[in-house]
Each structure stands twice: as C-alpha cells, then as structure tokens.
Design brief:
This is Fc receptor-like protein 5 isoform X1. This protein is mostly beta strands. The protein contains no helices and 18 strands. The chain folds into 2 domains: about 80 residues, Immunoglobulins (Immunoglobulin-like, Sandwich); about 90 residues, Immunoglobulins (Immunoglobulin-like).
Amino acid sequence: SDQWVILQTPLQPVFEGDTLTLRCHFRYNSHITRVVFYKDNKEIQSQADTELSVDRVSKSDEGSYKCTAWWLYSPYSGDSAEVRVSVRELPQTTLTLEPPFPEIFTRETVTLRCGVEGGSGGWRYLWYKDRQGAPVHQTDRSSGTGAGYTISAAALPHSGEYWCRAGRGANRLTHNYSNAVKIQVSGE
C-alpha cells in the first residue's frame, strides 16, 4: 500500500470491557508532532500523542476510525485509511466436570473444564471455590492450567462448589462467573 499514515488496531473483534488501543504510525518513521483521531468522521482526540486508548469499551465504541498526522519540518498532513472496529458482547462461560460425576472417592482424579462460547483464543482462566471472589488454593494435588483445573488426588477438603471465570488482557477480568459445579468427595 502507498499509504503514508497507518492506523494500527488490535485483533478483531474487541470484547466489551477490553481496552481498545489505536496507534497512528508514519510509514517513514518521521517524528509526528500532532495526531487527530476520528470516529465515524467526527474528531475525538487531537494531541501530540500517537496513541488513542479507550478503557472498558462498549457497543457504542464500535465504528470506523482513522487518523490524520502532521510531522516535523513539514507543512503537510497525511490521512490513514479507515479501519472498522467491531465490539462484541462477552461470551458465556460454562463449567463442566470430567468425568461427569459430582460424587467421587478420595484419591480419584477429576477435571473441571471452563468453556468459552465461540472458542478459547486469548482467554485466561481463574478458578473459585465455595464463594465467588475466593480463588482456589492451588497445591501439588490440584492445579489450573489453561481452561482446565485438575484435582489429581481428591481429598475431603476438595468437596465444595466451584466456579470459573475467563478474562482478557493482563490485569482485568472482564467476564461473568460460570455456572456452579458441586463436587462431593467421600472416603472409600
């Protein structure tokens, strides 16, 4: 492309609650002195910063974005192409048990699996026991990797109610809790 100014957007789609970061680049690495960002052809930000950040995006942030940049020692400006940003509702998470029996004996193995509607790319998972907001205590006998949480040698204290939650990005969990799954561990 012969476009001098490039608007860089994150992978699409963006999910509700994510942070949307747009960057305006000049192809030849010149020092940009001013950038104007537009959404649906309306100016939304004008400054020296080449980055536009929208926290906790919602459906209303969906639209066509572009930027105009001015650079050092030049009276001219350049426009990027328009880029469409789609914002999707957060998918549901579903917690299931493998094998699908809520009553198990001590020393048996069971895996809780957290499924995100529409695929698993880019999600991280947290696991909760007995109450929402209380992360499970991970030990050598129970650990969460990716979308699975495995209890490899069930003991009586593993009995209880479990939830999972999926999030995106480094810090923020943007997702609702899954359905609850109850596990009952019995002595043999």
